[in-house]
Amino acid sequence: MSKPLIIACIPAFNEEKTIAKVILQTQKYVDRVIVCDDGSTDMTAEIAERLGASVVRHPRNLGYGASLNTLFKEAIKLNPSCIVTMDADGQHDPSHIPKLVEPIIMDEADIVIGSRFLSSRDNTPKHRRIGVKLITSIARKASYQQITDAQSGFRAYSRRAIEVLELTEPGMGVSTEILIKASREKLRIIEKPITINYNVEKPSKKNPILHALDVITSTLKQYSIIHPLTFYGLPGSIMILVGVFFGIWALEIYRAEGRLVVNLALLTIGSILIGLLLILTGIMLFVLISVVRELKAKP
Q1: What is the pLDDT of residue 267?
Q2: Angle between helix 228-257 and helix 262-297 axes, rounded to 10 deg
């Protein structure tokens, strides 16, 4: 049996102060390191190349999701047994790589997520804990109920997982997009405890509120695509019921007093029209997605 090929994929944007240490420590546990320089204006790419990492460059900053997409396309060309993703800022401890990789190599999982919340040494800042827990609770509704850390970027993937996942989110929403699409493809996901070092110089380059909004809107978008009838049909049906309620109320007033309450009539018409529009949108999107899937399934 041939030795499994393990590749580390590291998205990086202006990480010249930490990239060297991350690469050197990671090389102890993997066979190849690929870095995606996402439009850096510093020496990130040059340092990575001097240390033996393969570097792919974006001409400008495209985002975390776009970097992952580029890395996966490069890594899959090498026919890897397992791909590990991790951050370039030093938050992830490369010594955890073997525990993430093992279930992939043993064919026990397709994706292994390093969860900070399963560790007995969880030191997550309170504001970050609240944000990640909120995002994870939303991601659970659309993917895997057992997930505890939907925003962890420290993950291991099988070759099959990379081949079936077609990523479209350019930003941080890609983390939950992967979970939603993995659920649709019935990929096996497990979690392993990891620790995260938050005492790094630049633990986050993005406003946490904007980060959360990016992830939540991306998650909702992915859910609407995968389950359009539920996403649009349920609120549409509720709006129609609201319209019927206001309509009955308006008719009762007209029957008792002989006058038409214009506000109630407008609410009735508006609610029913919005409800019908939502249901029609859900049906059209469902049909469109079904046709696209059938076309893609044809040889």
Answers
A1: 94
A2: 160
